[in-house]
Write a structure and sequence with these properties.
The complex is a heterodimer of chains A (about 375) and B (about 350).
Chain A: E1 2-3, H1 8-19, E2 26-30, H2 57-70, E3 74-78, H3 80-96, H4 103-122, E4 128-129, E5 134-137, E6 141-144, H5 161-164, E7 167-168, H6 176-185, H7 207-214, E8 222-225, E9 231-235, E10 258-263, E11 268-272, E12 278-289, E13 299-302, E14 310-315, E15 321-329, E16 336-341, E17 344-355, H8 364-371
Parallel strand pairs in A: 1-2, 2-3, 4-7, 8-11
Antiparallel strand pairs in A: 5-6, 6-17, 8-9, 10-11, 12-15, 12-17, 13-14, 13-16, 14-15, 16-17
Chain B: E1 2-3, H1 14-20, H2 22-25, H3 36-56, E2 63-66, H4 69-79, E3 84-88, H5 93-101, E4 105-107, H6 117-124, E5 130-135, H7 147-156, E6 160-164, E7 180-184, E8 195-199, H8 225-236, H9 243-256, E9 260-261, E10 272-276, H10 282-291, E11 294-295, H11 311-315, E12 323-327, H12 334-357
Parallel strand pairs in B: 1-11, 3-4, 3-5, 5-6, 6-7
Antiparallel strand pairs in B: 2-8, 7-8, 9-10, 10-12
Classes of the chains: A alpha+beta (about 375), B alpha/beta (about 350).
Amino acid sequence: MVAMSGGVDSSVTAGLLVEAGYEVIGVHMKLHSAPAAPDAGVVTGPPAGASKTCCGLDDALDARRVADRLGIPFHVMDLREAFQKAVIDDLVDTYMGGATPNPCIQCNGVLKFRVLLSRAMALGASKLATGHYARVTSEPALRTAVDGDKDQTYFLFPMTPAALSRTLFPLGGLSKSEVREHARRMGLSTAEKPESQEICFIPDQDHAGFIARSRPAAEGAGEIVDEAGCVVGKHDGYWRFTVGQRRGLNVALGRRVYVQRIEPSTRRVVISGPDALWSSGIEATRWVWHERPAPDEVVQVRIRHQGGLLPARVTGGEAPEIVLLEDAWAVAPGQAVVVYRGDRVLGGAWIRRGKGSRPVAVPARMKRLEGA
Amino acid sequence: MIYLDYNATSPPRPEVLERAVPFITEQWGNPSSTHGMARGPAAAVTRARDEVAAWCGCLPRDVVFTAGATEANHLALRGLAWERLLVSAVEHPSVLAPALALGATIIPVTADGVVDLTALEALLAQPGRALVSVMAANNETGALQPIDAVAALVRGAGGLLHVDAAQLGGRLAAPTTWDALTVSGHKAGGLKGAGALALGPGLALRPQQLGGSQERGRRAGTVDVPAVVGLGCALSLPATPGVEALRDRLQQAATILGARITSTAVERLPNTLHLSFPGIPGEAVVAGLDLEGVCGSTGSACASGASEPSHVLEAMGGDPSGGVRLSLGWKTTSEEIEEACGALTDVITRHRQVAEELSWSV
């Protein structure tokens, strides 16, 4: 079974597997309801308007066109309920908790490689294939894509060994341009389709507006304070901010300031100069291990998609801790920390906070004076 | 491939093809022309009109050919004169959507999916001449509506009754009392692209398409001769016997597997089986059957092909998701039904095994 979003990657995935002689079933996941049309309520059913993101009607129809072209059975599965719980509610809850969610990881870990995989097995499919840029080797092990710039293993760390052993990533050895070439060669209508990189269920990318609509009673406005606790400004929703963010603060202190941390209980956004955002360790939760490294092994960790790899050790017992051998800047709670040994993903978890911030070089009081 | 989706469309009957195909290949003239090339097609349309009128129980002149049942439904709701519009909650979307756009009031249904007559009576007691639209048989559940009882109430209140009989052709006889009746060709073993709205004697209809005098000025546009010939032919053929017994065999097998059968307490179309398996999404059952070579349906689908929560099941107060519709027809054989029973057993058993093996939900 191939998960077909209607994009070029999953289209080529299906095409390559057909060429390889697999008996392929295409499935499109309906994950959320398309935004309401102006005439909604008069004429029931989805709007006729165009959608630029994944999961919209156009994408379902694009996927169907590719399936028809390849001559494979195609079905749409309505997974809106599971998506609402695992991805949308999680996104809102995480923002409300003062952290920065990563809906793509939730979608992969829960929707694709749990719910959809079990649907595939129930239909008698032996494997689930997706258009991710990643590789699975026989151990089973999750490994980075050959095209390092496109590697998506950061989004895939929650996959269990059982899920990995039932998964195919046919694009793991290809570059994006090779994938587009395959699409053109196979005559697939999605060959020139642009990348989708936004949050698919928030078409305007205004996540703050989305939260306000989802939780109209939630109070998010509060104060912006500096590292000494002095109020330097106001904001209209702490969930607009991410650790390391500089834009949108609207405070003029005469120096570069960044969000250092967010305190949901007081709705305070604490800002500081860049120095206070360095961490020498990471506390994380909900660990998934494919293979846990020994405490003295130097591994690499990644704390954001397409972020650099940082050397680190994994210590601790029941509750593992990351000791960074090189400090990391702006460790954002709610994002994932993924642990690598070379090209292999060893495991990962959800960041609670960066630890052991480097001492601030200049006393806070002086900094404030500096800004005055 | 075992085809069990006759309520979506049916294979054309051989008699239909025999009569209709010459009007594609040789007698392609426009029946409205006055020359020799028109005579054959015009005669064929006249014969088809007679056949449709005979099935509906009306005069041939009161048959308006359309491009299908959806158009006929729109023509009835928009073209008849009324002050209030009442439609049942389980109507086909081609009635429900235009009705809601026209400000209709919804008539509730019982848990078995038939019109709540007490509620209808109360609605009819309000002032204003009502057009009531109630389908003869539901496309999802197969439940037959009490059209005679509905007609008596509507007549008593001085209203008009439109009956969407799209699912009735080729299966059961038309209801006897109505003011406007929708029929479909391809559900009855005819061809896609033809339907008709039959009208009570002398009933005025405001046309919705202008620009031609076809159909006595009530529906402009060249008549689709082969499709209309197919419609007339399909409605003139006797229903195939034995379909109900095959449906019951399938229902028995599904019941043994733990299926809940919909609308069993009321009369149903003899060819339709609507069921659900608790805990297994309908679309998963349909996809599983498809991979086994059995064509079924969830009964309601949106433009993307995803199954939509069914407004029919919702109106009945049931779980609006999870339904599976299997509908049989003139070509269905007992061998096919035995195979379909086996396929259904395999699909359901595999789902339950996977659900048991995995800690996560299917």
